[in-house]
TrEMBL record:
Catalyzes the phosphorylation of D-fructose 6-phosphate to fructose 1,6-bisphosphate by ATP, the first committing step of glycolysis. SUPFAM superfamilies: Phosphofructokinase (SSF53784). This is ATP-dependent 6-phosphofructokinase. Substrate binds at T125, I126, D127, R162, M169, G170, R171, E222, R266, H272, V273, Q274, R275. Residues 2-298 form the Phosphofructokinase domain. Keywords: ATP-binding, Cytoplasm, Glycolysis, Kinase, Magnesium, Metal-binding, Nucleotide-binding, Transferase. Pathway: Carbohydrate degradation; glycolysis; D-glyceraldehyde 3-phosphate and glycerone phosphate from D-glucose: step 3/4. Its EC number is 2.7.1.11. InterPro entries: ATP_PFK, ATP_PFK_prok-type, Phosphofructokinase_CS, Phosphofructokinase_dom, Phosphofructokinase_III, PKF_sf. Coiled coil: none annotated. One of its GO terms (molecular function) is 6-phosphofructokinase activity. Belongs to the phosphofructokinase type A (PFKA) family. Mixed-substrate PFK group III subfamily. Its main location: cytoplasm.
Length: 341
């Protein structure tokens, strides 16, 4: 069988582990030919294919990024895009396609599946907001990096009696902010799921600095917003692909806190540092498990499904049930972050 493989959307640590698993299992166990497409869906549209064999995936397990390259591109949003996808797959004699990506890539995968292509998807995103799976490839590494950054910022915050704002990724869901904030001991965690009141934040900071501490750590997701009707007006700044403009909410919070409290306030925007570099052991394992599950699903005749971590098990869930949905941080986890202020 000839099986196509692509990685779409933003890069995350652990993608190469998934690619490696698909190739090793697919070629070594089942005798499949694995064909990679460069730069996500754009590579399928443009016919940019490369053969993938065991020699191509040597020593890639600890590497960040993706050896196939990636791009933010959705074929159904371009005139003739879906037709071009179908033409390329026919020319390459691709019998099934494995798509590794986040919400945008998976939404595109569902559109291609509806056109008659056999699809198995693998969820990846540091935001951890793919519906239907407990974890996505890249999330564990991002939280580890963010937590280490918060640990380091603590020492300089205390030394200089500052309020330190750490802005992390999280466009529509605050998984990184909430979990790294808890792990790093932040005083305030702001997530898209719980719009904030700047007056309450200022009151808390003034009380804390008067009562028992001269510094504070605020962790904010890039997609966090103030609650309607509160004293701060702010609309999320977005780029051409719907991505949040890094630093916008952090800088606005800095200005508000400084003007209302007089406290020396600084912003650190972690940005793409969270998604680069060596994947953690957990992301290497998860990528490997998802890769094996995906090629096994293809071989057994499964179609239009996504690999998902459910507890300790990797299961298959219908792609149509997860595409276009956002998994948000549950209230009980947000409550833990608030309780530890």
């Amino acid at each position: 069988m000839r099986v196509g493989l692509l990685t779409g959307g933003g890069d995350v640590p652990g993608l190469n582990a998934a690619i490696r698993a698909v190739v090793k299992r697919g070629e070594g166990e089942f005798g499949h030919s694995i064909v990679g497409f460069r730069n996500g869906w754009r590579g399928v549209v443009d016919g940019l294919s490369v053969p993938l064999s065991r020699q191509h995936i040597r020593n890639v397990l600890p590497l960040g990024g993706t050896l196939l390259g990636t791009a933010r591109f959705h074929p159904h949003s371009k005139d003739g895009g879906l037709d071009a996808v179908l033409s390329t797959l026919e020319a390459e004699r691709i019998e099934a396609l494995i798509c590794i990506g986040g919400d945008g890539t998976l939404h595109a995968a569902q559109k291609v599946a509806e056109a008659g292509v056999r699809i198995v998807a693998i969820p990846k995103t540091i935001d951890n907001d793919v519906w239907g799976t407990d974890a996505s490839i890249g999330f564990d590494t991002a939280v580890t990096i963010a937590t280490e950054a918060i640990d380091r910022i603590h020492t300089t915050a205390e030394s200089h009696d500052r309020v330190m704002i750490v802005e992390v990724m999280g466009r529509d869901a605050g998984w990184i902010a909430t979990t790294s904030g808890i792990a790093g001991g932040a005083e305030i965690v702001l997530a898209p799921e719980a719009p904030f009141d700047i007056d309450r934040i200022v009151k808390f900071l003034k009380h804390r600095h008067r009562a028992h501490a001269s510094f504070s750590i605020v962790v904010v997701a890039e997609g966090a917003v103030p609650a309607p009707g509160t004293a701060m007006h702010y609309e999320t700044q977005r780029g051409q692909f719907g991505e949040v403009v890094a630093g916008a909410i952090g800088e606005r919070l800095k200005a508000e806190i400084e003007s209302r409290t007089g406290f020396d306030t600084r912003v650190t925007v972690l940005g793409h540092v969270q998604r680069g570099g060596t994947p953690t052991a957990q992301d290497r394992i998860l990528g490997s498990r998802f890769g094996v599950a995906a090629i096994d699903a293809i071989t057994s005749g499964q179609s239009n499904v996504m690999t998902a971590l459910r507890g300790e098990r990797v299961e298959l869930v219908p792609l149509e049930e997860v595409a276009g949905k956002v998994k948000r941080v549950p209230d009980d986890l947000l409550a833990v972050a608030r309780a530890l202020a």
